[in-house]
Amino acid sequence: MGIYEDRVLPRLVDLCCGSKQMDAERRLACAGLHGRVVEIGFGSGRNVPFYPAAVHSVSAVEPADLGWRLAAERIAAATVPVERAGLDGQALPFEDDSFDSALSTWTLCTIPDVGTALAEVRRVLASGGTFHFVEHGLAPDAGVRKWQQRLNPIQMALAGGCHINRDIRGLIEDAGFEIRDIDQYYQQGPKPWVALSVGTAVAV
């Protein structure tokens, strides 16, 4: 990664993703996590306070060293063991069927080959395992989608490759998951950036 992606972007992401409104969505996404959990795009550990008691351990996949350092206090306060166990969601260093749950929050927008990353999550989840997510992406309204297509190149350049026009539901289903529940709505803010998908999918 370059200097911007390695030293600046993790701080910006930590700042932008630290709102109380996002905390409410993180809590929803983390509800129901259990057993051994893999979290892709761990970032600065903003989800740590919302891990349920049923979680036994968390394997955190995070490419940015600065992001991991920013997470230090949250990890120290965690009620479950959290270890940094991977750098790339597109190539998870785990055996097949080795996790009970997976978690992704505001992460699928940025991974270059998101289809490969989701296939990796599916591979490492045991059959019947659950994938919990909150992601921004393709808006439900045609007018907003047109703006997303126009703005996406600028967004990618300024936000470390982040896309605002990915079809989150379609990508998850294409990776071999069955959506158990999903809520799609606009968070408060400019609509091209705040079309959210919050839900749970099952590895089938």
Characteristics of this structure?
single chain, 204 residues, alpha/beta, 7-stranded mixed beta sheet, 35% helix, 7 helices
Written overview of the protein:
With 204 residues, the chain is of the alpha/beta class. Helix content is 35%, strand content 27%. The protein has seven helices and seven strands; from the N terminus they run ααββααββαβααββ. It has a seven-stranded mixed β-sheet. The model has no long low-confidence stretch (mean pLDDT 93).
- Cα-based radius of gyration, to the nearest Å: 16 Å
Note the beta-strand portion: 25-35%
* Number of distinct beta strands: 7
- Total of DSSP H or I helical runs spanning 4+ residues: 7
Oligomer: single chain
The helix content is 25-40%
Mean pLDDT: 93
Anisotropy-based shape: globular
Largest sheet: 7 strands, mixed
Order of adjacent strands in the largest pleated sheet: 3-2-1-4-5-7-6
Stretches where pLDDT is under 50 for at least 5 consecutive residues are none
- Given the helix and strand composition, which structural class is it? alpha/beta
Alpha carbon gap, first and last residue: 35 Å
How would you spell out the order of helices and strands? HHEEHHEEHEHHEE
